[in-house]
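With this grant's support, we have paired protein sequences with backbone structure tokens. One protein thus recorded is set out beneath this paragraph:

_____
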Amino acid sequence: MPITDMLSLNAHIYADEISLIERDPVAGIRREITWKEFNNNANRFANYLTSRGIKPGDMVGLLLMNCLEWLPIYFGILKSGAWAVPLNFRFTAEEISKCLEVAEAKILVYGPEFTERIGCIQGKNSYLKEFVFVGESSNNENNDQLYSCIISEYPANEPDIPISDENEAALYFTSGTTGTPKPIVLTHGNLVSACITENHHHLQTHEDNFLCIPPLYHTGAKMHWFGSLIVGSKAVILRGVKPQWILEAVSEEQVTIVWLLVPWAQDILDAIESGEININDYKLDQWRLMHIGAQPVPPSLIRRWKKYFPNQMYDTNYGLSESTGPGCVHLGIENIDKVGAIGLPGYNWQAMIVDENGKPVPQGQVGELIVKGPGVMKGYYKNPEATNKVLKDGWLYTGDMARQDEDGFIYLVDRKKDVVICGGENIFPVEIENHLQAHEDIKDAAVIGIPDKRLGEVPAAIVELKPGRKLSEEDILEFCQLLPRYKRPRKVFFDRIPRNPTGKIEKPKLREKWCGQGVSVFV
């Protein structure tokens, strides 16, 4: 069954029940649609696409901030048999154009935030033949087709286009934290597998309400919502990440499940501990599950979280775009005593830790994490060489270094490309970052290797302090005396930690900025 059938089924069973709610705290706007409206709008957009000559296998770009229209448009693209191509809203006009050229997209859907960028590329792309503007007509500066007109003019009947699990559904570009973003091909079967795995992990029922905060263009947020789609439960799309806005949404919409990124969880705790927020002002008893993904989770963060939310279930999610988002490995809500691990192979998944020859390493040793399951991508688009490097005998080589404990739990050590090799010794930045983030005055931390004439490279810590706190480089180095000698940072820089919209540290930016600050250390 293709994932589009789930939407049609929900519209039949739960027609007049609320499916999606959008909250925009800045504009003071709250909007909602029912399952029937959701499905009708998707059908109307699909029928518009077919009327414009879009055929199965064609590609349609999607460049929107999170909003009530995002998912109906996405499903409309899928129902037409076309591939959805969600784009990172941080991309420049040049990057947008390049991605659309790679995809050979024929239509681009965009919002008012991108008017200037889209204006720069109109008429310069050899494939794009039409643009659809999602917003008020008064803001349609490029005079493009209006989405509001499409859903009022085109019929809401189900498109008569056969779709199977084997059909390609979407082209996702990787986050690019370790290099140039690569386009990933996902099938309807991949998307359906994410629904099943997510629902099995987090036990969503029709009565649940999921708060969606991360950007929908990324696999993470959407694939977590898929666990709600499969049971027809509602979701809230929140535009903004301030702690007050998150807690207001949870309280006023009676949200039961929230997926956070590490920085947002830290911000909520900081706001509570500073007195900026009083959690007794909010109705939070129904909030049953908080889970985190997209990056290593410091155990100290969860210990702080449980102090204020002792009755809440917690889960760590691990995944990547190439595995159709999170779920190939997860901690499990029953395993909170193992916080710090990314967990066990997910439902319908297998996992191994291997050496450079693809052979399993002894338990406890560090190797590369590889996974196998129904969410493994079809491949990198038109790039068999890159595909063959990461897909071998059905196994996906993640590029993440990990180890496994005596109970089978997997601990993420670091990205293969982020390992610091100091005097021939492998140093995994995540271990140092977790230590630094346990300091009560540190908001965030990142560790990179900087050049050293004698040792090749040495670990340097970039530290972001909490507002109003003061620490010196000497204070940080003293705190790191608790680490083994070879793991201690040799240099400390104070700066903001850049993270992408999915919470991952953008280490290429840090290396570009700080690698010229090398020091020669003799030990």
